[in-house]
Amino acid sequence: MIRAGALRLCRLTLWALALGVWPAQAQAPDWPAERPPQPLPAREVRFPSYAMRTLDNGLQVIAVPHHEQPAVSLRLLVRAGGAQDPVDKPGVAALAAALLDQGTASRSAEQIAHAIDSIGGVMGAGSSADLTFVNAVVLKDNLDVALDLVSDVVQNAAFVPQEVELQRKQMLSGLLVSYEDPDYLASVVFERLVYGFHPYGRPSGGTPESLAAITRDDLVAFHKDWFGANNAILAVVGDVSVEEAFAGAARAFGSWKRSDSTASRPPPDPPPATRRLIVIDRPGAVQTEIRAGHTALPRRHPDYLALDLAVKILGGEGGNRLQGVLRSDRGLTYGAAAHLRARRDAGSIMADTDTRSDSTAQALRLVVDEMWRLQRQRVSDRELGYAQAYLTGNFPLSIETPSAIALQVLNAVFFGLDLEELQTFRERVNAVTDDDIQRVARTYLLPDRLSIVLVGDASRFRKQLAGVGFDQVEVIPMTELDLGSPDLRRRRATAGLGGPSDVGSGSSGLGVVPTRVETAPAALSAGRSDVQRLVERAIRGKGGLERLRAVRTIQAVSDTILETQGGTVTIPTTIRVRYPGGFRIDTEMPTGAVAQVFDSGTYWIRDARGVHEAPSEAAESMRGNVQRDPIALLLALNEGRVGASRGPDVTIDGLRMPALVIDLKPAGPLTLVLHPTTGRIVRATYPAEGAGGEVEESFSDYRDVDGLQVAFSVTVRHPGLPPFTRVMREFRYNVPLDPAVFAKPS
Known about the structure:
Elements (H helix, E strand, L loop, with lengths): L1 H17 L32 E4 L5 E6 L5 E8 L13 H8 L9 H9 L4 E6 L4 E8 L3 H13 L5 H19 L2 H14 L12 H6 L2 H11 L5 E7 L3 H12 L22 E6 L5 E10 L7 H12 L5 H9 L6 E7 L4 E10 L3 H17 L4 H14 L7 H13 L10 H6 L3 H11 L6 E6 L5 H4 L8 E4 L44 H4 L4 H13 L2 H6 L2 E12 L2 E12 L3 E8 L2 E8 L2 E6 L2 E4 L2 H12 L2 H9 L5 E9 L2 E10 L3 E7 L6 E7 L6 E12 L2 E10 L6 E10 L13
Parallel strand pairs: 2-6, 7-11, 7-12
Antiparallel strand pairs: 1-2, 3-5, 3-6, 4-5, 8-10, 8-11, 9-10, 13-14, 13-25, 14-15, 15-16, 16-17, 17-18, 19-20, 20-21, 21-22, 22-23, 23-24, 24-25
């Protein structure tokens, strides 16, 4: 049975882990250690050569030949995002970006999707505070098709009314879930507090009120104002010559008209750093989200690199004093970090963590003390060396693929940096001294002028804040929070959140934040189906939308315990996931080691026969595993990229539970049974590949791991195998993963 079922069991391993059942983090060994090992010497790496040309219509085109893969990556940026939204209608840029590939003057949304799928490519669009983007990746032979598609969606977006309403509903549904997430609330209030009424202070994803008010005319006007060739940059990177890239760009984009109406408007200056502490009161919350920081440098500032290293020492990769103090020394949190968020016209420094309600004041005091210490005390050579080693060691990973190279080049051009600096990145990082760190910390770090946001149960920590030095505190109940009001409060208190009177007068339309599904604004409730509510419940049950979106990589180790006639067999398994397109499962089967890998559309296996492409049956099974991955699946459901319907309720242990039936093609329908109270996935069933019948997986022993709910045990019943149980051993999120582990060896 083991030999006959080995490959099928291996196929199941990814799914059994991926449905949110990640193993617990291993405990550190109890032996003395002063410091981690020294980093390995950096290997020689140079940024690829490139060429740049400006077309007659003003479009900047960058060509980067990179012949290691027969693929080409297209990335087009338009210099307009949430910061260019109308003052009273944040969310226009986000909604416009979501609609770019949902219909043009000559193609419907379905035709666009078919056109890119039929050539085995991928395409997507989106926006941020400063820009809107359209990306595509195709094989070299299909470069002209991709150029035509990108050109069409960026120039000729139709903003079809039916698609506008569909995307609006999806964004409203996403906001409803986000407003239930304290992590999202802390971040959006922090941005508003730091930037005030500067465009960066507006929520770029909009609010329920602003999204409901956006019209098709608003979208058309935004597109007309900002989407011009002279306000855009195109990068063509991959298995293409410079001449081919420029010729293709000129053919596809040469007729794109210029924009001359608003692109030259000078941005307003950001407000000065101001000390302020806001508590968003969420009665009953057991944890507090903490954000502390202030405005900082724009990306093109000459001191950016030194300040970035200083912030990494405070709370980033290669350093992280905050993690050492708050987690390792005091055990107050699962994680703490600091970020330098540099945008085109301004930036911010933000420290963030979460902690138990009763330790809120202590954790906040420690965060601020570490900021003071970085400003007042010289950093050690060892700390600086580790931060430098991280940046220089990570640089090769940032130029491994055509898409990554395109992103680096576009960032440099977008922020007005010298492209030659990409060639000297490592040398410039290593040239930063401890004197530089002390200078930028004393110049740009302002611990006495911090904007601080705490989201939690104010009754559990409000009185403790004065005892640790924070005596000026504003407490705002969630039901009164208005992001558009100067004092962040609703101007007029009303009985509910359901009517227009709930929007504070003069609030710039930025909206009141709802606290629960039952009290959502009418604009949010309209059109929400039972399926949408179940999806939102599942997302909350997993840990919230923002935490799901923050997952970039996963590394996990588990034991599969299988009872056979010959006795108990334990199968060690290691899973590595790199979103959005890399999955690898290594299984130590009794018949030998087996590796199954999905890498951005390709499927390959390493077993006793060597390395080879996965047979069609195995590839289909692997594709189903990838489609059923819970993090990607929940995000796809939230964004409407995957369809679902309400299944019949299921009774388990006397408890009636709702079910979602998700239409996965070609993997077949996946049924998720949700706990009626927690929203956690209790059971999953799906067709058994090549065996007839269904696979049933039952999840139990859920625990909180870094804010996400994790089942530590899963029992699998497969019609072609005896029942087996998977027990989790080790688990890590967002760890660096070498892209080589997913790439098929030559």
